[in-house]
Amino acid sequence: MNYRDIPRIVASDGDDDAPEVPSRPRRFEFVRTTGRLDVRRLATACVLTACILAVLAYAGGHAVSSAVAWLHKQPRYQLRFDRIELPVPPPSCFRGGAATFLDRVRRNANEPEVLPVLDVDPDRIGDVFKHFPWVERVESIAFPPRGLVVRLAYRIPVARVQVTAADQVVLDREGCILPQQDIDTERLGRLISIQVHGLTLPDKDRVGKIWRTETAKTPERAAVDRGIVQAAKLAGFFLEPGREAEAVAEPSLQVLAIHDDPKLNRGWFVQTTPGAFILWGRGPGDEQPGEPSAAEKWDMLAKRAQDGGLKPERPRDYWTFGRSGLSYIRAASAANP
User: Fold this and answer.
1) Rounded mean pLDDT of 19-27?
2) Taking the model in full, what pTM does it have?
3) The organism sits in which domain of life (predicted)?
4) Which sign does the torsion angle of CA 237, 241, 244, 245 carry?
């Protein structure tokens, strides 16, 4: 029997023109065919990911920094130094008012005319004002929208020291030397004269600083320096608004001058408007044990002025303080003031 090979029929795919299905993209396999973790490939992937993230972070940070820098330079965030707001204006005796004051502050600190408000450091701007001779302290700094507000406490002139016929120094109540070129004498309030023996004119670099003439070669000036500072504090005490108002109402309370007592070292003599001399003693805060305080002395002085006045009977007589009030001293019965 003959057997014939039956031809095999190959099934057609049906549609010879159908597009081929693309093969799946090859993944980054972290597991080998053996089932083990491919550490090398995993490490490579981690490094690549870290590099990409670093580049993105750098690019993002650079973009943000550039945007911030651009914003800080925009005109709306630029402030002229002379447009800084001072809620408390400078003393009326300061020549030129607030505009000149701000210009002098800027020049004194070598600051630019225009400040980028968003870059201003409060501590630095505070130092700029604190180092100006007329500023006693910086009380606050605020940043309203596109602005800068600086609240200051100022040094107020209270005393003048006539060192020589041609040289005069103006002091605040702490004994700080104030720049006389800034003072408008026509708007300057009443100053009390400090008259001390053996004075030396302070160096020019002491302007804006506490009175001092002592040097390593002249230590004996230290006592005089302390006296000047103490007298300035006493002048500031007399010119406090409440006491000055009392002195306006009762002229015999108005203090004209403060004198030292170099011979007997009893403290300060105070000269009032009617020509009376009062042995005041030590200045405020420097009283001797048992000595009345400055406030107690003022109360005694005010009571005496109301009761009978302070006009002396003779030119060289003076008044002195006791625990119970003022006593009148005749020049013939005690050392002359």
Assistant:
1) 56
2) 0.76
3) Bacteria
4) negative
